[in-house]
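Table S2 (continued). Query chain:
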Amino acid sequence: MATALSSLERTFLIGVAGVTEVCLVRHGQAQPGPAAGPDPGLSSRGQDQALRLGQRLSPLKVDAVYCSPLLRARQTALALAMDVFADRRLVEAKVRIQDGKLDQLEPAPEVVARMAQAVDDAVKDHLGGRVVMVTHGLAILNYLESVLGLEPGRFRFFPQCTSISVVRVGTSRRMVGSLGDVAHLDSVGS
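Corresponding output:
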């Protein structure tokens, strides 16, 4: 039984030397409404979410924190580390909201390609370590669909604010370790 479990863990890149753990984090809740402007910062709730995220991740060794250059993502990342690396490839997918419906204008393969390149570059720089990438909901969703081998639009999941989704990256494959973990928000809701 122990041998079978060990083999299963290796299949999913658990405890495998040289595997990099990538924590994809959606930014904290942004300030609402048009008064917040085109690049809103975190609301007071978002600031609390980011603080709790920082407390949750503080016991872990994190080699680097990357973030989208948008203010809400930068502010969330700064709750984790003072030294963060902004990367334009981590921005949200381009969307249009019309008649109460959200349409993704940027094709999913383009979102996946830029997210995958950002992840690959971070993995190359921190091989066998752990990196945190603070990004946006649709960007995370599109990337996870690709890692899971799903067609775009088939994964009925949307990351909550400051949720953590883990992808383990090995030399020849990627495996999802967890999806949308928000245990750090349990006492305040999400």
